[in-house]
Design a protein that fits this description.
The structure holds 4 protein chains of 4 kinds. By secondary structure, chain B is mainly alpha-helical. Chain B contains 23 helices and 5 strands. In chain B, helix 10 (about 265-290) packs parallel to helix 16 (about 415-450) and helix 11 runs antiparallel to helix 16 (about 415-450). Chain C is mainly alpha-helical. Chain C has one domain (about 5-465). Chain C is globular. Chain D has one domain. In chain D, helix 7 (about 170-190) packs antiparallel against helix 9. In chain D, about 60% of the residues are buried. The model of chain D has no long low-confidence stretch (mean pLDDT about 90). Classes of the chains: A mainly alpha, B mainly alpha, C mainly alpha, D mainly alpha. Chains in contact: A-B, A-C, B-C, B-D. At the B-D interface, helix 15, helix 16, helix 20, strand 3 and helix 21 of B face strand 1, helix 3, helix 4, helix 5 and helix 9 of D. Strand 3 of chain B pairs parallel with strand 1 of chain D.
Chain lengths: ~220, ~650, ~475, ~300
């Protein structure tokens, strides 16, 4: 099982790197769907989640539904509907982004080493993945022009945080009602962002954040 | 203290009444005057009875918001400061009866009366506050109510600026006060005033300096005086009278109170106060001399008098520190006396200036002239006020200054620092006295005497009855105190009775001197009458004719050839040049047949320019530079968050 | 049943969204009234929570709930008149979202579970976003975008922080429900390093929402672009809710013996916020932005006051109450000014004293109140905070604190005087109406009354709220 | 009784002594000069005349001469001439007397300004200016005296056993004081080099220009006041020089007035050999006197322990 979880985590890492170097919006959305499903699966393969009860199975399905289908689907619609140019338009170039992603991996490996905490089950890779995902999400938020890529960055960060939660928290704390609430927030958040994006597009004829710089002192 | 609170209640009623009745303009004014006057008389009676029959200081406490108590105490110091509050304020309100004569601005006038009443009440409460929250509360109410009084004429841009400046200084000063109080609290753990003496001496010094800055910004010490020359001209004149005559004295009250509470016989307090007082006094009067705007000049003159009062206090404090009882006693008594006197003659002068402004529609000395003939009562009372403020016998100003001189002379026998400081105090008093004479001869001589320089001045006429009445009353008070100083000086002695550290000094010797001074004054007046009679005799049945002024050979002198205030002061200002720069705007003569040219000079307040150039401007520049923080780019905004995380994790 | 406090506005919101606008307005006001009653019941401890794992009526929560409910009542009355005047396009959405917003905020105040708190706070962001962009102007959209994105990112970090706190439980071998009240009791056993790390992320996260600099960047945009009732809600109620998250975590650290660390962090954030506010209030051109920066300043003051302990904490709680009252009143007045002049630019306003006398009274009184003049409560709270700071020996901090206060006062006074008194020749577009003035007066009056007479029970609530971090009168 | 006689004598003698200056100047210039009683003649002539008042002026203009005259007379009432107790004296009288002189000056100045004449305004400004400086010098002298002898009145300064004079231990300081006082005398009485009363150009005058419009008895009062003022300052200096007190009152008086005469002669000589300073040099001149006495005062830190 451990190997399997490692494999999934590697795939997550790969998706992160791919998203950094991706230059197509549609591609990005697909990567996000892929990543969402992977991330949802992670708890399934972790040691501390021994007893998989009916609740967790149900929750797993809901999570895959939201993270892997609903949210990416919603964004897919958004991208299509606003008919934005499909270029990602980075501030930081794709190669540089990629290298930054690699640097994130190195740094998070170093941090994980330094933290040296007795993680339940010694999931060093999990933590590395989580930190990298988070950092890359923040990086996408900062380094891309298009508003929609920022949403994707936000989602990626959220995924990273979820991974951290999965890595660190014991099962005893996991309360599905609460987790569902978190997911719901995420979903509604993305929907709201989508609506705002839609409005921005109709008001500005573009979703370039460079246009969103009027309010300043 | 029941009488005291009753009087305050009556005053508040007097303030609220106009708000309710503002549709009936005259009734509103009359009702307000009557109520405020009644309240003030009651309060004055209470304060005086406490002063004259010293009993245990009256106290009153009231729980407030579960954690505070509102605590009031009326001891001799409070009672003494209440006297000018309750004496001058009703007169100012009475004065305003004819001064505020625009029925179309009825509601605004009502608001002015309301805040006037609030100001009176809050000043009285400041004087009686007996713990930190009470004091802070009363102090802030005083600041904000006086602010509204200053901006009465808000359509005028200058007024707005003045109000702004005043507002900043009031609140900034309050912050220093809060800091001082908070520092004390951090040692005593109690809001009460009583525990102040228990804190360590070094802390006391810090507390005193903070409080001195805070109170000083209200009182107008150099260089925190810069709001005065703006706020006083901007405010209506009866308000200037109250603010300058009474309100800035609350700053002095604060300094005295904090000194009394800290109760530390250290030389350094006296040194600070004395040196600041000397600088304030001399520069205040020099700036007064250099200004041609009557009310601005009077504002600077207030600064000067605050300087004199501080010299008195400083001398008193040095007396305490060196154990020279007489010096301490008379220093404080002189300061108290001058507080009282200044409140009278300064309000008189402001009312006079207000009368001039009211009728001649200008405040500039260089546009006035010849008003004595046109406004006989205003002119004569203003002359008396000028004599009093110049400290000349037989008028009231002299008495206070004499006490301070007397105290300073007691310090002449001391050694080293104390001696030099006493000597400097005497010299600066002399210089201030001389310059004040120069300054007020200028005002009287140029604004009221000679020929009117403009049509505005030429068409001035005497002001309304209530205004005349108050000015006559105050002028009479100036003369009365000068001729019969004893009861008033005894009042000042009673006032300082509750100051700690003073020892028990018996001022009987001084009372003898005082009687002699009174006799001298009386003798002078008698002599004056005799000589006048003699002069009358000499002119008996003689030909007395009138003709034009001798123009030194110039046959057609015009009124515009009269000496102006600017030239009158020019050489004296020149003497103090490094501290009193003069800005000259001269258009020059360019063409062969020169057209109209302009020449304008203006005395620059170094405190103001330096504060503006060295502090405010760079600060503004810095703040403007920092505006890029909010640049509008969301990516960098998120960058801020990331940066914060990184920094915080580094300091984890 | 305690949960009614947020369930009823939730259902009312759903109803209002789908019912006709006129009915929606009635629902809005009725719900506000009902909510006040529910809050009162909660305050008097009549109702108990049903899901006591997640919800609990803590004194600090009750306090914030009280404030929120109270100002919501007046804002709802105001907004009825405001909406009638502005002829809003999607008014039913606006009313619905206001009610949802109330529900979310009420949930925040009652939340005891770490993650539930997070959910509720994130929910406040999401339901308030439509309030901001209801006008759909370009600026409003931009503001909404920034608001949603920055707050979401920030709050996501708070989730991470909550996870770290969970981790500190695990490492400390503590097995209690993941609720503040439960953790409080066992705080000493929590792992300090992870607890601190958790605190850092929570402060940054909720601090973003609360408007602590340098995470405040969304705040001036959102407050200035949203309709005035929404601004008033954002500033008067929402910021307090976010503060509650910070405060509860701070309490936890205090109980764990890490109070010094968390205090220092809060002091730094508080002072930075005040400085930033000072920078932007000076030379501000937009009066709503000025008010927004003033909110940043006041949140800084509250954070500072909470951190210094003792009297300062009491002062901070008072400050929270009075700031909400006064600031929401100011924003409501600013709505009238906006209607009257049709612009948010200070340079295009003026002579309010003559043109909009009633609004002028409310606005200027509010300004005096927010600047710490009696008879408004901020006078007391600032005095207490200054005294508390000296008492705790933080002389440098208090120096900066006072300096910022003076600067902000200087900056704001100039602008307010400009608006109130300066020359203005054009006519007023929309005259004042009593319905849009009275709520402002009522809020200010409440602050003034609370400065004279503080009900015993309210006092007790404040004291109970601050005893957890050693705040009180003996500090 | 002695005091009254002394006071009356002082008032009567003042014009005579003033004439000495004119005589000395004339003598040095090689002229015969006016008769020694010229000042009495002038006064008598003026008292007999009527007056012309400017239409610009008010009652203040008429008040000026009276007040300034009264203030000088007041000072003389308190001053001990030739060791004879003055008519009145009390601890602290010096201050009120100096301030009374200030009162006189105040009225002189505003009376001048009352005429609306530009020249008189100019003179008034100068008078106000220079007297502020001279007054400071006088006050330093007072505090020096107070430090030396602990008293606070003219009578106590110059009579009794602790009288201050050139033969006391602090004589070296008093030399400085005498020089300074002489400067003050020249300033306050508008003598050369501060002012030239004999000039014919109003622009350069100080005191004389201020009284241009006064005439008749008013002018007489002013003139008499000026003589008395000069008399007072000379007596002040004389008291410092005056070495001893003999039992014989008349002998005392003789010596005293002898020294007084010498001071007047000295003023006359100064006027003859010096030119008037440029107006902007005058403050420096007066400041010198201030510096001298201030220096002397600081030096007392050595003398008085």
């Amino acid at each position: 099982m451990i190997q399997l979880s490692d494999a999934i985590l590697s795939l997550v890492l790969l998706s992160v790197l791919l998203s950094l170097s991706s230059n197509r919006l549609m591609g990005l959305v697909r990567i996000m769907a892929f990543q969402g499903i992977l991330v949802s699966l992670v708890p399934l393969f972790l040691d501390q989640h021994q007893g998989i009860g009916a609740g967790s199975i149900l929750f797993l399905q809901i999570m895959i539904l939201i993270k892997g289908i609903l949210i990416p689907g919603f964004m897919y619609i958004a991208v299509n509907k606003v008919k934005m140019r499909t270029e990602v338009e980075p501030f930081v170039g794709y190669h540089a982004s990629l290298f930054t992603g690699l640097a994130f991996i190195v740094i998070s490996a170093y941090i994980t080493e330094r933290l040296n905490i007795s993680l339940p089950g010694g999931h060093a890779l999990l933590l590395i993945t989580a930190i990298t995902t988070m950092a890359s999400g923040l990086f996408l938020l900062m380094a891309r022009r298009k508003a929609i890529t920022q949403v994707i960055g936000y989602l990626m960060m959220e995924n990273g945080i979820y991974l951290v939660g999965a890595a660190l928290a014991k099962e005893s704390h996991t309360q599905y009602v609460v987790e569902f609430g978190v997911l719901l927030d995420l979903l509604v958040g993305v929907m709201i962002m989508g609506i705002v994006l839609h409005n921005i597009n109709s008001a500005f004829d573009d979703v370039d954040t460079a246009l969103l710089g009027r309010l300043k002192d | 203290m029941d009488t005291f609170f009753l009087s305050l209640a009556v005053i508040v009623c007097g303030g609220v009444l106009p708000l309710v009745m503002h549709r009936h303009f005259t009734i509103m004014k009359a009702g307000c005057c009557v109520l405020i006057a009644a309240g003030c008389m009651l309060g004055l009676f209470d304060a005086l009875s406490l002063l004259l029959h010293p009993a245990v200081a009256a106290t009153y406490t009231l729980p407030w918001l579960h954690i505070f108590t509102l605590s009031f105490q009326m001891d001799s110091i409070s009672a003494f400061f209440l006297v000018p509050i309750f004496l001058i304020s009703p007169l100012a309100v009475l004065y305003s009866f004819h001064y505020m004569e625009k029925p179309e601005q009825s509601f605004r006038t009502a608001i002015n009366y309301f805040f006037n009443a609030i100001l009176i009440v809050s000043m009285a409460l400041v004087a009686c506050a007996d713990n930190i929250p009470t004091f802070a509360l009363a102090w802030e109410i005083m600041s904000i109510s006086s602010y509204f009084l200053v901006v009465y004429d808000y359509q005028n841009k200058d007024t707005r600026q003045a109000g702004y400046l005043y507002f900043i200084f009031a609140q900034g000063g309050a912050m220093f006060l809060f800091a001082a109080f908070a520092l004390i609290y951090s040692y005593t753990g109690s809001f009460a005033f009583t525990g102040f003496a228990a804190i360590p001496d070094t802390v006391k010094l810090v507390v005193f300096v903070l409080a001195f800055i805070g109170f000083g910004s209200k009182a107008g010490i150099f260089p925190l005086h810069i709001w005065l020359p703006y706020a006083h001209p901007a405010a209506p004149s009866h308000i200037s009278a109250v603010m300058s005559g009474v309100m800035i004295k609350m700053g002095i009250y604060g300094i005295i109170r904090i000194y009394a509470l800290l109760a530390v016989p250290s030389m350094i307090f006296g040194q600070i106060v004395l040196i600041v007082g000397m600088v304030t006094g001399v520069l205040g009067v020099v700036y007064a001399l250099g200004n041609q705007d009557v009310k601005k000049l009077l504002a600077y003159s207030s600064v000067e008098n605050i300087g004199i009062i501080l010299i008195g206090l400083g001398v008193g404090m040095i007396g305490v520190a060196t154990g020279t009882d007489a010096m301490a006693f008379f220093g404080f008594a002189g300061a108290f006396m001058h507080v009282f006197n200044h409140s009278i003659f300064k309000s008189l002068l402001f009312m006079g200036a207000g009368a001039v402004l009211h009728k001649a529609k200008t405040r500039s000395i260089d546009q006035l002239g010849g008003l004595l003939k046109r406004m006989p009562v205003t002119g004569r009372t203003f002359l008396i006020g000028s004599l009093a403020i110049s400290g000349l016998p037989p008028f009231s100003g002299f008495i206070g200054e004499f006490l301070i001189y007397y105290a300073s002379f007691q310090g002449i026998h001391l050694q080293r620092t104390a001696f030099i400081l006493s000597a400097l105090a005497i010299i600066s008093l002399a210089v201030i006295g001389g310059l004040a004479t120069a300054c007020f001869t200028k005002v009287v001589g140029l604004a009221f005497l000679g020929e009117p320089r403009t049509d505005k001045a030429a068409h001035a006429s005497e002001v309304g009855f209530s205004m005349q009445l108050t000015m006559i009353f105050l002028a009479a008070a100036c003369l009365l105190i000068g001729v019969l100083p004893e009861p008033f000086v005894r009042l000042a002695f009673k006032g300082i009775a509750d100051l700690p550290l003073l020892g028990s000094y018996n001022p009987d010797i001084f009372i003898d001197i005082l009687r002699n001074i009174a006799k001298t004054a009386a003798l002078f007046i008698a002599l004056f009458l005799v000589v006048s009679l003699f002069r009358k005799l000499l002119y008996w049945r003689k030909e007395v004719s009138a003709g034009p002024t001798w123009g030194c050979g110039f046959t057609r002198p015009t009124v515009r050839m009269q000496y102006t205030g600017t030239s009158y002061a020019a050489s004296m200002i020149d003497f103090y040049r490094p501290f009193v720069p003069v800005k000259t705007l001269y258009s020059g003569i360019r063409k062969i047949f020169p057209g109209q040219t302009t020449y304008h000079t203006e005395v620059i307040d170094v405190a103001e320019t330096n504060m503006h150039e060295k502090i405010v401007r760079p600060l503004f520049k810095l703040l403007q530079m920092l505006h890029w923080i909010q640049h509008g780019h969301i990516q960098l905004y998120i960058g801020y968050i990331v940066l914060t995380i990184v920094v915080m994790l580094l300091f984890l | 049943m305690l949960e009614l406090v947020f369930l009823i506005p939730l259902f009312a919101g759903i109803m209002a969204t789908f019912l006709p606008v006129k009915l929606g307005r009635v629902i809005l006001v009725i719900t506000a009234l009902l909510h006040v009653q529910l809050t009162g019941m909660c305050w008097l401890k009549i109702s108990a929570p049903m899901f006591d794992d997640y919800f609990r009526a803590t004194p600090e929560g009750t306090l914030v709930l009280l404030v929120t409910s109270f100002i919501f009542l007046f804002i709802s009355i105001y907004s009825v008149s405001y909406m009638r005047e502005t002829e809003m396009e999607n008014e039913h959405v606006f009313i619905g979202c206001m009610l949802f917003f109330l529900a979310a905020m009420s949930m925040v105040t009652m939340a005891d579970h770490l993650i539930v708190l997070w959910i509720a706070i994130e929910a406040t962001t999401l339901v308030s976003a439509p309030l901001i962009f209801v006008h759909r102007s370009k600026e409003a959209l931009e503001a909404t975008w920034k608001y949603v994105l920055i707050c979401s990112v920030g709050i996501a970090l708070a989730l991470l922080g909550s996870f770290f706190i969970t981790l500190s439980m695990d490492i400390g071998q503590v097995d209690v429900p993941l609720a503040f009240s439960a953790l409080q009791a066992v705080a000493a056993n929590l792992d300090p390093v992870w607890l601190k790390a958790g605190f850092v992320f929570v402060v940054i996260g909720y601090g973003t929402k609360m408007g602590l600099a340098p995470m405040h960047t969304w705040l001036p945009d959102a407050h200035s672009e949203s309709p005035s009732p929404a601004s008033a809600l954002l500033s008067g109620a929402l910021l307090n809710c976010a503060f509650l998250g910070v405060y509860k975590t701070h309490t936890l650290l205090y109980a764990a013996g890490l109070g010094t660390y968390s205090s220092n962090v809060l002091i730094v954030f508080g002072l930075v916020s005040m400085s930033v506010a000072a920078v932007f209030i000076m030379n501000q051109t937009d009066y709503k932005r000025m008010l927004a920066y003033s909110s940043i300043e006041n949140m800084g003051i509250i954070a500072f006051g909470i951190a210094i302990g003792g009297l300062g904490t009491y002062g901070a709680m008072l400050h929270l109450i009075h700031h909400s009252l006064i600031k929401s009143s100011l924003f409501l007045s600013s709505g009238n000014i906006l209607l009257g002049y049709g612009t948010k630019l200070i340079s295009k306003t003026g002579n309010m004293a003559k043109l909009l006398p009633k609004t002028f009274l409310a606005f200027f009184a509010g300004f005096a109140g927010i600047s710490g003049f009696p008879p408004f409560g901020i006078f007391i709270s600032e005095l207490l905070i200054i005294i508390g700071a000296f008492r705790s020996g933080r002389f440098v901090s208090i120096g900066i604190f006072i300096f910022c206060l003076i600067l902000i006062f200087a900056g704001a006074a100039r602008l307010v005087m400009r608006m109130s008194f300066a020359q203005h020749d054009e006519d007023i577009l929309v005259q004042e109406k009593m319905l849009r003035i009275l709520p402002s007066y009522a809020l200010l009056l409440t602050s003034a009354i609370l400065c004279v007479w503080l009900p015993e029970s309210l006092y007790q609530t404040i004291i109970n709220a601050i005893t957890a971090i050693g705040g009180g009168l003996n500090g | 009784m002695e005091s009254i006689v002394s006071f009356c004598f002082a008032i009567l003698a003042a014009p005579l002594l003033s004439a000495i200056i004119m005589k000395v100047k004339a003598y040095i210039a090689g002229r015969k000069g006016p008769p020694i009683l010229i000042k009495y003649y002038t006064l008598a002539k003026l008292f007999k005349k009527g007056s012309v008042y400017s239409t610009s002026s008010s009652f203040v203009f008429k008040l000026g001469p009276v007040v300034s005259f009264c203030s000088v007379v007041m000072v003389l009432l308190f001053f001990p001439f030739a060791g004879i107790k003055p008519l009145l004296s009390f601890h602290g009288d010096v201050i009120i007397l100096l301030y009374l002189m200030g009162l006189g000056r105040f009225f002189t100045i505003i009376a001048a300004l009352d005429t609306a004449s530009p020249f008189e305004g100019m003179g008034a400004a100068r008078e106000a200016y220079f007297s502020t400086l001279a007054e400071a010098t006088l006050f330093v002298i007072l505090l020096l005296f107070y430090r030396l002898n602990g008293s606070f009145s003219f009578a106590a300064f110059f009579t009794g056993t602790t009288a201050i004079n050139l033969w006391s231990p602090a004589a070296s300081l008093l030399l400085l004081v005498i020089v300074a006082l002489f400067v003050v005398l020249l300033t306050e009485n508008s003598r050369v080099p501060v002012d030239d009363p004999a000039t014919h150009l109003e622009l350069t005058m100080i005191h004389e220009v201020m009284i241009l419009d006064h005439s008749g008895p008013d002018l007489a009062l002013i003139e008499l006041g000026a003589y008395l003022k000069l008399f007072f300052y000379s007596a002040f200096i004389t008291c410092l020089l005056y070495p001893f007190q003999l039992d014989n009152v008349y002998l005392n008086g003789l010596i005293f007035y002898g020294i007084m005469g010498m001071i007047y002669v000295l003023v006359g000589i100064t006027e003859s050999i010096m030119a008037r300073y440029k107006m902007n040099l005058v403050p420096k001149f007066i400041l010198t006197s201030f510096a001298l006495v201030f220096f002397a005062t600081i030096l007392t830190m050595e003398f008085v322990k």
